[in-house]
Amino acid sequence: MVKVKQIYICNNCAAEYSQWFGLCKECNEFGTISEEPIDISSGAGTSRGGWQSGTRSNNKVSGAAKPRVSLKFSEINNDVQERFPSGYGEFDRVLGGGIVPGSLVLIGGDPGIGKSTLLLQVANKLSYTLPRILYVSAEESGQQVKLRASRLDVADTKTAAANGKDNGKVSQKKDNNLYVMPETDLEEILRELESLKPQVAVIDSIQTLHFAALTSSPGSVAQVRECTSALMQVGKRENITLLIVGHVTKEGAIAGPRVLEHLVDTVLYFEGDRYASHRLLRSVKNRFGATHEIGIFEMAEGGLVEVDNPSELFLGNRDEASPGTSVVVACEGTRPIVVEIQALVSPTSYTSPRRSTTGIDYNRLQQILAVLEKRVGVPLSKLDAYVASVGGLGVGEPAADLGVAIAIVASFRDRVVDPRTVLIGEVGLGGQVRLVSQMELRLKEAAKLGFKKAIVPKGQSLPDDLGLEVIPISKVIDAIIAAIPSERSGDFSMPEEED
């Protein structure tokens, strides 16, 4: 006989309670606890012995010991898993070199950022090279998907009225292998996957699917967990690659239980300002490649377009140099990106000075300001400081510290740093410039873009014949002298105002 027990689960943090509460004690959110039924089988309490049950096994086996299903490493097939390209090099880069058959890829991002647009374009590209691609739309009808596909020039049923006439006949675009399924019922989707057997299936989105065996509403912890688990079992069994769209919370994390990110093989975040043109696809988990890889796209009239040279996007206008700017080389995974850092230092109009950052960690800025005042002698405690990266790219690694410090001092002294100079190094609390990783990769990227000089930490191993003048320094004050032209060395007084 099957017994049914009711438990209460928080839809935000998956905390479990024996009774309903208005406030979750774990995440302090109101109205997120919902009732979930669970089945308790009468035979579920069968004991297997061991230390938990109090009955220890004597571990005596008659005859020779032998494994039942376990294998040695030498017995496991070591064939390399073949990847296939998605049609977008930036998407393949983030995945680690292409799509792995039978993998689960979770893509999250803010509403309106372009998740559905990206996956519809990827599905369209794949449909011309693979036999069957399935696009499951749980949020839009088939007409809505087709209308969006027409705007992106993805739909393959439009007639070419203007240029498609051949011998008096109107031609059509070649029909691809993209199938669209507007459905929210999980069981119907699973039956379609087992019947169609597509190479790639897009699920848009996992929070809108509904499993009829559960009484909870779509998007709840139980629904998301069970739907993802069922899709994973079918995908692994039929060797179907699943690209799953996930909603995010107001904090920016994937909505639903944390187990969702544990079940999938890869977790990607689609980031960017919806009012800006560029978008960043960032990898935070990847079982088949490196994490923290990024791919850069630009939202154009015809959809998302790959950015071949992202360094030019984040360099800004280098024709006219202005005070308070410097150039750093940040590494996102294995990709070096040259980014321009801008700083503005001005007298404050408030009791306490303001500090503001865009793309730079706020706490990192506070630390650099303290080092400049204590170790270098730049009086910044009563001045407002604003620091930003061009394009709003998030630069969180310590290798950008030296560029931020030089930009602040250059703005303070109203000097112009040579626009052909890059600065790479971590600033220590004692005013030292520490070594950073992947220096050769950074310098090669700077040389490729035409930079002539690089200021780097002393003792860093450097490659030969890069075409760069490399200046090794050990302290921040040495970098200031090398990077900022000054008629009077060591003069940190504020420039006098002209009458």
CATH topology of the largest domain: Rossmann fold
Largest sheet: 9 strands, mixed
Distance between the termini: 93 Å
Runs in which pLDDT lies below 50 for 5 or more consecutive residues are 42-48, 157-173, 488-499
Secondary-structure arrangement, i.e. CATH architecture of the largest domain: 3-Layer(aba) Sandwich
| Form type | globular
Helicity range = 10-25%
Total beta strands: 23
* Count of DSSP-assigned helices: 11
Radius of gyration: 29 Å
Query: β content, as a range?
Result: 25-35%
Whole-number tally of structural domains: 3
Overall CATH class of the largest domain: Alpha Beta
- SSE-based structural type: alpha/beta
Please state the average pLDDT score.
84
CATH homologous superfamily title of the largest domain: P-loop containing nucleotide triphosphate hydrolases
Report strand order across the widest sheet: 8-5-9-10-4-11-12-13-14
Structure in words:
It is globular and about 75 Å long. It folds into three domains: 1-42; 89-157 and 175-308, P-loop containing nucleotide triphosphate hydrolases (Rossmann fold, 3-Layer(aba) Sandwich); 312-483, 2-Layer Sandwich (Ribosomal Protein S5, domain 2). The chain has eleven helices and 23 strands. The chain has a nine-stranded mixed β-sheet with strand order 8-5-9-10-4-11-12-13-14, sandwiched between helices. With 499 residues, the chain is an alpha/beta fold. The longest helix has 18 residues, at 221-238. The chain is 23% helix and 25% strand. Helix 4 runs parallel beside helix 5 (221-238), helix 8 crosses helix 9 and helix 9 packs across helix 11.
